[in-house]
Each structure stands twice: as C-alpha cells, then as structure tokens.
Amino acid sequence: MKAIVSEKGQVTIPKKLRDELGIKPGQVLDFVREDGRLVIEKAPADDPIARIWGILGEGRSTDEYMAFIRPSVEE
Q1: How many other CB atoms are found less than 10 A from the CB of residue 1?
Q2: What distance in Å separates the CA atoms of residue 43 and residue 29, rounded to the nearest whole number?
C-alpha cells in the first residue's frame, strides 16, 4: 500500500490498515527511525491514575503527607 505525503507532511493511513490494526480517530502514534526506515507504532494508553498510584506510600493519609511536605510555621 502506498500513500502520498501532503505539503504539510501529512499522510493518510489506508483504511484497511487502520481497521486491521485498530487505529481509531484520536489515536496517538509513535514515530521511530529504525535502520533507515520509518516505523509507526500505536502509543501505549496513558493512564493518569496509574502514573500517580502509590505516590503517598502505604499507611499514610493525604493529611499526614501534606503535613510532612509543608514546612512548619512557628509564630
């Protein structure tokens, strides 16, 4: 399959490939140069919850963590 690069550098992925690979509108793709070739891969889904899960550690409440990171103010 072939595609033409537009003046803006855009390329249309043939529908057959989009369907076979499950590429949907809005899908983020990674472009990688590999041995002189252009390789396009579906980017992993970014899960914002997974990114911060466990940041407080075990056994510490949010209030305890906030008290820990904030400097104490003595008057």
Answers
A1: 7
A2: 5
Spatial CB neighbours of 21, under 8 Å, sequence gap ≥ 6: 42
Helix and strand totals (H; E) in the chain: 3, 2
* Amino acid (one-letter) located at 73: V
From 20, 2, 19, select the one nearest 11 (Cα to Cα).
2
Does the pTM exceed 0.70? no
**Average pLDDT, integer, range 25-42:** 93
Q: What string of H, E and C letters represents the secondary structure of 51-73?
A: HHCCCCCCCCCHHHHHHHHCCCC
